[in-house]
Amino acid sequence: MPEEHYLNATYGIRSWLLTTDHKRIALLYLASVTFFFFIGGIFATMIRIHLLTPQGYLVTPETYNKLFTMHGVAMIFFFLIPSIPAVLGNFLVPMMIGAKDLAFPKINLLSWYIYLVGGGFVLYSFATGGLDTGWTFYTPLSSVYSNSAVTPAVIGIFINGFSSILTGLNFVVTIHTMRAPGMTWFRLPLFVWAQYATSIIFILGTPVIAITLLLAGLERMFHLGFFNPALGGDPILFQHLFWFYSHPAVYIMILPAMGVISEIIPTFTRKPIFGYAFIAGSSIAIAVIGFLVWAHHMFLTGESTYAALAFSLLSYLVAIPSAVKVFNWTSTLYKGSISYDTPMLYALGFIGLFLIGGLTGLFLACLGLDIHIHDTYFVVAHFHYIMVGGAVMGYVGGLHFWWPKITGKLYPEFLARMAAVILFVGFNLTFFPQFILGYLGMPRRYHNYPPEFQVLNVMSTAGASILALGYLLPMLYLTWSMRYGKVAGENPWPATGLEWRTPSPPPTENFDVTPVVDWEPYDFKNRPDLGLATPTGPALSPAHGDD
Amino acid sequence: MHRTGELYGQFQTLEQQKESATLGMWTFLITEILFFGGLFMTYTINRHTYAQVFAFSSRTILLSWGAINTVVLIGSSLTMAMAVWSAQVGKKKLVTIFLILTLVLGTVFLGIKAVEYHDKYVEHHIPGLNFDMYYCTNNPSVCHLDDAALAREKKELKEAEDQSGSQVAVNAHSQLFFSLYFGMTGLHALHMIIGAGLLLWLIVESMKGRFTAQYNTPVENIGLYWHFVDIVWIYLFPLLYLIDRH
User: Fold this and answer.
1) For residue A211, which residues of chain B lie inside 8 Å, CB to CB?
2) Is position A102 within any domain?
3) What is the ipTM of this complex?
């Protein structure tokens, strides 16, 4: 380990709370999103326990409404959306492009504080009456009829939006102006491309949800009528504005995870990634087309058939860039020198689960079929395959992949592989039965169900307990490894990115001298510095924490 | 935004620093367009649905204040542009003078806006408070309606009623108009207030002689912001004041 690095350069609580170092801010985010993951996880646990029996004995129907709402709000706005961009992106984007920091370090710190203030309002709403509108805040339920603490929640999400916007703005400017000499656009790691695409959505989408929730909040506070039909307003307008952000928000969650996977796969196959330009371009394509599909959430609102047709077609179109990525990852595996290290297990898991999540998305984009499965557990299963099977797997995989860089320590490999397998099994057991439940007609957001659905629900709850174990394990051994783990060294895997050409943990300035890039991305052949005896052979295996 | 023009730690060159700040401001303005966009969308839908009531509600706003404010704001954009130009050619005194002029015009705009809001309060046109479109025809002296104006407003209210179906509906739909009026002009005014704060800071810095031909990024970028706020008003004025005013 280097004697001085970003973690021990300065001491004391002030040095953390007032830091402008992107790496420390990433760790502040890591702590806060983990906290919200726990909050959301507790609600999920209660939902699954409640659904063990058809009548649902654990909580009252009103409380059940609050549970699934607060689960969604905590997980989507305060865990999934900031997770990879604000934690891994914050840590890695400047390092990957060879910069000392983001372009606006103070704004970066500000966005963390904005996140905390927004989170505070939402926790206040949870503590004082909860929230029962569904995470979608549909009007006029949210703006007129709900008796729960909608106003503080709406204010919290409004405030939190500016945290996303500022992070996105910071990334866009940084990627444009802060690249090291020789780091051309087509030498950027694909993770950076993914962050760039995500930032575009942050910048263009988030202000729309902010103003929409502001209008809904004002309507609730002052009895205005924007979205209330009784006063001449239009509830469908709310849904249009809401989904204009909230559908692209799905790509905010999945694009960064795709970026993580694009880093892991070449590293553990020892091959340049197949179709670099196509993977980079498909990230941008997803961000752009993602803005044109929102009304597929509203096929049953009575929107015009022609509009529905167009939105259905455009939704199918999004599958193309997504498939381009999956095909390219798979092609990278072909004849690669594959090692099944923990991050790679997450990457392979991601490909499989994302495939299922993506293909079932096409079922839902199909106008006729959507009438049958709309608002059923099929939808719930579909988006959990994308958000948990995709985004969270990518996030946890990425944490493992860059953990040696972040902490300078290796985690115990055997335990970590076990956890990855447990997570995969637990996830599928939780959510695959929900596809069947939905197809058989079990609606989402109901607190009870007919007895014939019990077996599948019990399976799902059993899976959820395995899934919980899969999340607890990494939390324990990753924390353990910070103190007791083996020293990782500069480049334990080894991987090709710039972030691996500086000590672990890195110095505050990231690089002792500004790096000059004169190699192509993911090129293992022309990189003697990686210490590989034969570039394609397994001569040097990755370093493990329990070797 | 950098106080002194020295190089900040994360940058390699002053040129890179300037490029980053400028790109940051442009990106921020794009976000702002989408932020206002949600309101413009809500306005468009409702204006289309309740065209009659929107036209009538719009006519109850005094045109003269809005027109004067438009001229004031365009004037402030001119002085702002002059401040940027003065900074670029290194005329330090002129920068301060033009910035002060911009701030004065911005304050005049906000003052007139306050007068307009007060008028609306007197006329019971504040949504959610005591909104009543019939207040002025019932109390013509409070709203300073002379006989001709009273007769015209009564006739227009009757027409709106025929269109919307009832007095309750006219009130609900015109409340939508005024919600949007206050939402859009209020958000715009908030941007003006933030802009005035930024101008104040610029004036202090410029009096210290910080802005030179070599270093004037804050003047340029706050100038961009000011012009953006100006352009938003250029759209707001016809949309809110000039519906069916011929």
Assistant:
1) 35-39
2) yes
3) 0.93
